[in-house]
Amino acid sequence: MSRASRISQVFMSPNITVPDISRFVHLNEVAPDRYEEAGFGGSANVFTKYTREDGHVLKVAVKCIRPKSTDESEEVSKDKINKKVARELSIWQTLNGGRHIVELLGVFCGIKSIPSLVSELCPWNLQEYLERKTPRPKHIKMLTDILCGLDYMHCGLPSGPIAHGDMKLGNILVTPDETAKLCDFGRSHKRGDPRGEVSHSSVLAGTVRYMSPELFDSNLHGPTPAADMWAYGCIALEVMCRIPPYHETADDLEIIRLITNGQPPSDRPKGARASLVNDGLWSALASCWVKYDRRPTPQECLGQILSMMESGDIPASPVLPDLFPGPEGGSIEQWPDEIPDLKTHLELEEGIGTIASSVRANVWM
Predict the structure, then answer these.
(1) Which residues lie below 8 Å from residue 363, measured CB to CB, with a gap of 6+?
(2) 101-to-47, 50, 77, 175, 186 alpha-carbon distances in Å
(3) Which stretches of 150-255 are assigned E, i.e. beta strand?
(4) Domain ranges of the chain
(5) 268 CB-contact burial (10 Å; exposed 0-12 / middle 13-18 / buried 19+)
(6) Where is the signal peptide (predicted)?
(7) Is 310 helix (H, G, I), strand (E, B) or coil?
(8) Which of 35, 282, 289, 358: CA 20 to 30 A from 77?
(9) pLDDT truncated to tens, each residue of the chain (365 aa)?
(10) What fold does the segment set 12-120 form as a domain?
(11) Among 3.10.20.30, 3.40.50.2300, 1.10.510.10, 3.40.50.700, what is the CATH number of 124-311?
(12) 252 near 275, Cβ under 8 Å?
């Protein structure tokens, strides 16, 4: 069976009409340390260039799901991946066209014959964007953009609501014009999905810190819009205060215990981290962490924030103080004698690979 035939069978069902653009896509970089660059996480993403029929060349992101290391045969593994990709494609195609949804361009079958999803390439995920020094990030705009994206998913579709299912900073991308867009719909849940079809078969498949208490109920049939709003409150906490949910522990089991015991993701911050959050904004944020049937909808939460902006209670473009100031205010302290200085033992070779990079530090191997 030809590659085109396989693509046709997998993706061109009556409900999915995503073009195969394989002949236009040319891979530039597929090294593992570049996967994070495309903004989708470590499952497998690469930079590419995409040549349209009019000859215009642009960079795109390709999401290629890598097979897990199991005892399954290659054919069984590929069949599972095909089903997973087809399901995500179906949801993404339903959402495609939303202003705050990352644009799906098509499919590509050029990496070990495994189908991949091709989308627009955004320069940052939200975590990277918030670390930007100049110009300053637009914190409130990020909050309202995310709510617009969730409102579209929950209330703006003729086919009914779709729950994202994995809301976190890494699944929100920021375009060059500073518009926040939602991406990664592999764990999303739509009306009519049979039990077990959602790709996260384990209750812990999502990011634990952002999970609401009801998601640990084995009787729950997949993620819900209300669970998305709990996660939105966690994201707002990070955007405005630079504090992750349940920041006092790194143990997932302890986080689960706190969540199921009714502990909110954070108490109200104090000091510099609270400088952008007044009483009204904290109330709106914390309302996302009440019982699932009392959480606000995206539209209700958006209305509260816009009302505070119109009244001047919160500025449209607040400036968060530098929570990690550099040495500009004084000299750097002398290196302690008890800590060995390894500068004579380390040498950075030309062409060395960067493992990670952020505003604060680079890590090489």
Answers:
(1) 354, 355, 356, 357
(2) 19, 20, 29, 11, 14
(3) 162-163, 172-174, 180-182, 189-190
(4) 12-120, 124-311
(5) middle
(6) none
(7) helix
(8) 35
(9) 343 333 334 444 445 567 665 555 665 554 444 444 444 544 545 556 666 767 777 788 888 776 665 556 666 667 777 888 888 989 999 999 999 999 998 887 766 667 788 899 899 999 999 998 888 899 999 999 999 999 999 999 999 999 999 999 999 999 999 999 999 998 999 887 766 555 444 445 558 999 999 999 888 777 999 999 999 999 999 999 999 999 999 999 999 999 999 999 999 998 888 888 999 999 999 999 999 999 999 999 999 999 999 998 887 766 665 555 544 445 556 667 777 777 677 665 555 554 444 444 555 55
(10) Phosphorylase Kinase; domain 1 (3.30.200)
(11) 1.10.510.10
(12) no
- The type of residue at 327 is P
123: which 2 tokens? 């320069």
Q: Which residues pair with 180 in a beta bridge?
A: 174
